[in-house]
Amino acid sequence: MSISVDLSGRTALITGASSGLGSRFARIVAANGANVALGARRKRRLEALASEIGENAAAVEMDVAREADIVAGFDAAERAFGTVDTVIANAGIDGAGMATDMPEEEIERTLAINLKGAILTAREGAKRMIAAGVTKGRIVMIASITAFEPSPGLVAYSASKAGVVQAARSMAREWARAGICVNTISPGYIRTAINDEWFDTEPGKKQIARFPKRRLMGEEGLDGPLLFLCSDSAEFVTGSDFVLDDGQTL
């Protein structure tokens, strides 16, 4: 966490904060001065992370597939720290499975969490920023390089992430005059709890070998761009997607 950006005075709500990239985002945003509301379904993990971070973190139990949970999550964040002016919509599941085999229920669940949940989270944040007169709002939505690359076995997941990119661009246009910047980050393949087992298999190892640098990228590669997009310095950046993939799509 050597990158330093001044986020003091900001209050961020981060979904999917109980593990993986979400927990890293929470740590680095808090380390750079922001208050952080940690949103996810697994409250015990959130409480442990909040205790680790310190007094500028609060655990907020929420399921992004349910709008009522999202509203309640923002209410809890406001009670803890005041108006949320920074949203990181990160919650997601892998939705893995070949298109011909994937049950309808799993397709619906993947789209509900990854796409609908991201839209509802961003929307609730924007509504409250507008109502509170926030003029330097920041919304960062986490997409994926699978939004642009054919991804056999990840049809529902890749469709959800492509939807996130386009939804972010459209919301950026809707809220531009309110001073709310909406951007996406499309990470490459990073080892997380979602894909850990896959990359230990022979097909997973072969996939890594096909990347130009023959490696998975480190999650620290997202730190700088994320902090920038959450900061006042990102005033002139909205409706943009940042592909951060260690050259995996080359």
Separation of termini?
27 Å
> Any idea what the CATH architecture is?
3-Layer(aba) Sandwich
Helix-strand topology string: EHEHEHEHEHEHHE
Please mark out the parts with pLDDT under 50 across 5 or more consecutive residues, or reply none. none
CATH topology: Rossmann fold
What would a concise description of this structure say?
The chain has 250 residues and is α/β, with parallel strands linked by helices. 42% of the residues lie in helices and 15% in strands.
How would you describe the overall organization of this protein?
The chain has 250 residues and is α/β, with parallel strands linked by helices. It contains 7 helices and 7 strands. It has helices spanning 20-31, 43-53, 67-81, 104-132, 155-175, 202-210, 223-230, and strands at 11-15, 35-40, 57-61, 86-89, 137-142, 180-187, 241-244. The chain has a 7-stranded parallel beta sheet, sandwiched between helices. Strand 5 (137-142), helix 5 and strand 6 form a beta-alpha-beta unit. The model has no long low-confidence stretch (mean pLDDT 95).
